[in-house]
Structures are given as structure tokens and as C-alpha cells.
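pls design
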């Protein structure tokens, strides 16, 4: 599992939302960076299976501190319309 740290070290990040593809992940990443919301993107890509697992499940997910959950989900819903 590939992990991309976005901001400063977070205490107790939790899974907030599953991401369908890399484009969706990068768009949400950019918005959250712009707003200064700490988060981590975790890709399900596994080089052993050449990404097979990733394409059959989802691209990955986003983790962040629990206190940002509602704000992130609102951004994600708006972005996905």
C-alpha cells in the first residue's frame, strides 16, 4: 500500500472516504491542501499484483483527523456532483 503524507504529522487519523480513481484523489487532495486540512491519501496499488487489486476494489482512501470528517465529506459531495 502506497502512502502519501500531505501535511504535518496527525494524531489518530481515521478513514474518511473511499476514492474511486487517481483523478478524484488528486482533485480532493488539491482542495484539502488549499484549505489547510491535514490528510493522508492511501492508494491500494500493489506492485506484486500490478495494480489488479486496486482497479477491482477502488483506488484507495483518504484519512484525516476525525474533527475534519464533516467538512471533508461536504467538500467530497460538492466535488462529486
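designed seq:
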Amino acid at each position: 500500500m502506497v502512502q502519501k503524507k500531505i501535511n504535518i504529522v496527525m494524531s489518530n487519523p481515521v478513514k474518511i472516504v473511499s476514492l474511486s480513481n487517481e483523478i478524484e484523489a488528486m482533485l480532493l487532495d488539491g482542495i484539502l491542501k488549499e484549505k489547510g486540512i491535514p490528510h493522508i491519501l492511501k492508494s491500494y496499488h500493489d506492485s506484486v499484483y500490478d495494480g489488479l487489486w486496486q482497479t477491482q476494489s477502488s483506488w484507495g482512501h483518504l484519512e484525516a483527523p476525525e474533527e475534519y470528517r464533516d467538512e471533508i465529506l461536504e467538500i467530497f459531495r460538492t466535488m462529486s456532483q
